[in-house]
Amino acid sequence: MSAQGMPCNPQEIASLFLFEKLTPEQLGRLCTEGRVERFDPGPVYTEGDPATCFYVMIEGTVVLSRRVGGDDVEVSRTSQRGVYAGAMQAYLGDQVPQTYTNSMRVTEPTRFFVLPAQSFADVMREWFPMAAHLLEGLFFGAKNTQRAIGQRERLLALGSLSAGLTHELNNPAAAAVRATAALRERVGKMRHKLAHIAQGPYSREALADLIEIQERTAERVAKAPVLSPMEAADREDELTDWLDDHGFPEGWRVAPTFVQAGLDTDWLDQVAARVAEDILPGAIGWLNYTVETELLMDEIEDSTTRISHLVDAAKQYAQLDRAPHRDVDVHELLDSTLLMLSGKIGPHIRVVKDYDRTLPAVPAYPAELNQVWTNLIDNAVFAMTSAGGDGALTVRTAREDDRLLVEFRDTGPGIPEDIRSRIFDPFFTTKPVGEGTGLGLDISWRIIVNKHHGTLQVESAPGDTRFQILLPLTATDPGPEPGSEPGPDPEPSEEPT
To answer: Could you give the C-alpha distances from 464 to 72, 347, 434, in angstroms and in order?
Structure first.
């Protein structure tokens, strides 16, 4: 930093809007305790260093930047006379860490009025005691409010997810209950049929053949092919005709079950060749019960597997029993979140997964990333639903140099240009009262930028809105907990705050 001390002129200081209402005595004190310095192009102070001075620009050009990962990202550039930055929270004393929250540099020879942080704190408390108390209350009140509403945001998301998970679990659970009841009935009929067969004129060899056919039939059920509706209908007609020709009453009732099990007329011909003609109808009925029980057990297995997958997805989403920071496959996180939100997404919105499965795992806080996915998917669904209900949500992953891209694209109406710059502001929302807290994108920004040293940006046009997240592929120092740092820095202040 190259700085040159210069005389402090109270009249020049009074021309800056921040000090224009001060008395001559107050201006004199400022010039006594402060100083005017001229800086050559280059850095003035660095983010994270102790905040020792309060700067008010007299003339020149100032640039503010924030450190994101290993890069300094410019957040503001201005030549507006009187803008101020630096130790702006010195009046709070040791209640908050007194460090610079950004970096400042000048691009041309620039003059500042420089006031030591302690002097700034003293004059604030002495000259504006009521204002200092109000600012202190606003500062901590905003933090507490933001924390409380942030918790409510998480609770709202949890409620939405719980409703969706309950809906998703209910379908396979109900199917398993129905299948179990039907299975109990079929097994009862099989016992009855077995008793009938045992009392009939069946030789020992014939019973052995029936048991072998039953085993081979069960094996065919496990390997049943998937037929098109037209193929299935044609096969049902063929089986119905075969059953009618071989004296089986109401063959049309069992034909659909046999088709579902992968049986055809060739298989029934093999059965007829092994079984005497007089016991063939009873054998076909016995095989029908066998097929039905196998299909019902498959349905129960499918339902319980689905429930198991949903529980696993819930655990993946909540990251239960997992390390808070670890290498993760973002596709597992995305899939678990989409599954958890499937009830909310609904049948009218088509989900497209455009994944690059060759991407490596990335170091991350997976539970927090799932919260980001939830916020972005929820916003996309709300946008499309409010515009008519139909649409497509595309989730894309790709590699961009040394970073991993996750993109959420929706076909909603888009974000108007006049509010696009405000969507990451705390408490800003376009949802109706009671439906949004205005903290979803603010929290997402903090998680991605502050905690993961990534970037979060948006591109929007009617029918094509894309939220793009870039995450480092290599580990960086873990960031602070979400909500413990401010969001995107505003431009240098042009009015007292």
So the answer is: 30, 20, 27
